[in-house]
Amino acid sequence: ECFKEARTILIPKDKDNLTDINNFRPISITSILYRSFAGILADRLHNVSKNVFNSSQRGFLRLDGCFQNTQEILNIIKKSSRCKTTPACLLFIDLSKAFDK
């Protein structure tokens, strides 16, 4: 039952504008039992994910910040610059508001 419950608290991003709902960040408070279980499950899934995901998969995995992604992009650019016959195209998409209603 405690896995189903959480208390959500709205934290203001900017204390000067408390009337705009977009100015708040939701924080969910869950039980210690749930957090412990979720941590154990995350550790086990992390160990399994090494064998499931392609090595170029970066989303939703534990990484060293943006360093690995930046290094991967630089490697692609270097490799492309050596290959004069095939043009390269990089596309960057910001999906931060893709699912907002």
Helix and strand layout, with pairings?
Blueprint: E1 7-12, E2 24-29, H1 32-52, H2 67-82
* Number of DSSP helical runs: 2
For the sheet with most strands, the description reads: 2 strands, antiparallel
Low-confidence stretches: none
**Total strands:** 2
Number of domains: 2
Q: What coarse outline follows from CA principal-axis ratios?
A: flat
Give the C-alpha Rg: 20 Å
Between the first and last Cα atoms, what is the distance in angstroms? 30 Å
Strand content: 5-15%
In terms of structural class, how would the helical and strand content be classed? alpha+beta
Instruction: Strand order, main sheet: write it out.
Output: 1-2
Q: Residue-averaged pLDDT, rounded? A: 83
**What is the N-to-C succession of helices and strands?**
EEHH
Query: Which range best describes the helical content: under 10%, 10-25%, 25-40%, 40-55%, 55-70% or over 70%?
Result: 25-40%
InterPro entries: RT_dom
Protein name: LINE-1 retrotransposable element ORF2 protein (Trinotate prediction)
Pfam family, one: RVT_1
Domain Reverse transcriptase: 1-101
Would you write up a description of this structure?
The structure is a single chain. This protein has helices spanning 32-52, 67-82; strands spanning 7-12, 24-29. The protein has 101 residues and is α+β, with helices and mostly antiparallel strands. The protein folds into 2 domains: 1-52, no CATH class; 55-88, no CATH class. It has a two-stranded antiparallel sheet with strand order 1-2. The radius of gyration is 20 Å and the shape is flat.
